[in-house]
């Protein structure tokens, strides 16, 4: 693969590392974009070739319709990733990205590319859902209040009400994908799963996090950090260090 910051519409390589022994694929949260992982790419290069996924409906893909179904999104992502499986691949997903990472891992394993690790951050196990989640069906004001309270959206976007409302369709689509996802029983993964969460995250209880053990035959480890849903903003160095050490062992 050529050293480029783009690999089609779907993938971003901010710091191409052609000789890296492992490729880390990063999957954004609801309302997030590939650029959220720019600091991760910078910190891990050249140890890992970091590839961040850019969903439709945001930033340079803002004129494209978003995908509001996790399985459809996983199908599309895997189709883009398969040519990049020329070396071991790990997956890191936060929130919606963790659920998507699980579905992507299933498809990669079916294609003969078992990930060396799935880092599942800020998300309960795929089989643990909450029936009362209906944010994607609510008014714009409720959706806006939710994302402002999460602290996961670019402050420049939050400060510009017109811009924020322009990206609402993509955010609503992401929330629909996350809230309507239902696990379909099937064979578990074989790859290790590394579960990371904030200890005061209202989106994930300890019991819901422990459910990840049901979804792989590989080892599962749990890491708790102080903070809420976007604990990783305050613990970026610790999280990146953990990822670095885990990839080195792989």
Automatic annotation (TrEMBL):
Superkingdom of origin organism: Bacteria
Protein keywords: Hydrolase
Signal peptide range in chain numbering: none
Gene3D superfamilies: alpha/beta hydrolase (3.40.50.1820)
MF (Gene Ontology): hydrolase activity
Domain Thioesterase: from-to ranges: 23-245
InterPro entries named among the record's database cross-references: AB_hydrolase_fold (IPR029058), TEII (IPR012223), Thioesterase (IPR001031)
A Pfam family annotated for this UniProt entry: Thioesterase
Family: Belongs to the thioesterase family.
Protein name listed in UniProt: Oleoyl-ACP hydrolase
Gene for this chain: rifR
